[in-house]
Amino acid sequence: MDREVRIVSYILILLADSNLPTGSFVASSGLESYFKHGFGSPSSGIEATLEFVQNSLESYARSASGFVRDAHEVVVRFVDGERAVRLEDTLAKLGELDSLYEAMTLNHVARRASTAQGIALLTLYTKGFTNPYGLANDANSNSVVNMDNFVVEMKLRIRHGKLNGHLPICWAVLTATLGLPAERSIWLHLFLHARALLSASVRLNAIGPYASQQLLLHSVRPLVDEQVKRCAHLHTGLGEEMKDTADDGDALPASTWPLGEILAARHDLQHSRIFNS
């Protein structure tokens, strides 16, 4: 195993840590509303949870994968210094992707959860993944400092309302900055989405922790692999290099589960709830 593969594997392990403060713990992505509206019962917790995970994962993969891929490419170009890419140009392109995702997110509850988790990822980078003060930098210290400044500037623009800071965009920024390849970034992003749903199901008392691990090992992996394969061609259609896909509906993001959108939008109407989304 060469050094690059080891580094990628190590980053995957770090980002898969369930203790990372990413904001996903307070989000159920509509699962709580799904159960409250009568879809599933205590006796069918595993089946109902798995059905929700499958539908939610398929819809999220189709809607978010293209944004992660394109935003990741934008950040990588800045990191590599291709064609003298400037900070302002990079943030402007990310802003276009961010605005498009805002427009394509169909309900206010999903928007709220997405932006909360997005800013949490940038905060995670600035507080958890930057070089500790006083520790010697490596040979790429100038690049590291540039990316630290880049993420700080992006956070400031989100705080000032110039960017929304949606989850797929900020996830791409985080993983591209850490050096994770785009396809591995998308795979991990979808895996974490599915794992968060199972975690929410446990806290809703629909399934137990052991059942959650069983589903994660035996059911979720093929679902994630399938969606990564199905969405490997997706782009947002923004940018000169993507103009060939702009008229190809099959290559563009879309929401594929209207029921999930409706139930997620009704989350705040519940009399009592334990999640923010």
Give structural notes:
It is a single chain. This protein is an all-alpha fold. The chain is built from ten helices and no strands. The longest helix has 36 residues. The chain is globular. The chain starts with a helix and ends in a 12-residue tail after the last helix. The mean pLDDT is 89.
Short description:
This protein is mainly alpha-helical.
Q: Indicate the mean pLDDT.
A: 89
| CATH architectural designation | Orthogonal Bundle
Number of domains: 1
How many β strands by DSSP? 0
Category from helices, strands and their pairing: mainly alpha
Uncertain segments: none
Task: Tag the structure with descriptive keywords.
277 residues; mainly alpha; Urease accessory protein UreF
Secondary structure: elements and pairs:
Layout: H1 3-15, H2 31-36, H3 45-80, H4 87-104, H5 108-129, H6 141-159, H7 167-178, H8 182-203, H9 209-230, H10 258-265
Helix pairs in contact: 3-4, 3-7, 3-8, 3-9, 5-6, 5-7, 7-8, 8-9
InterPro entries: UreF, UreF_sf
Keywords: Chaperone, Nickel insertion
GO molecular function, one term: nickel cation binding
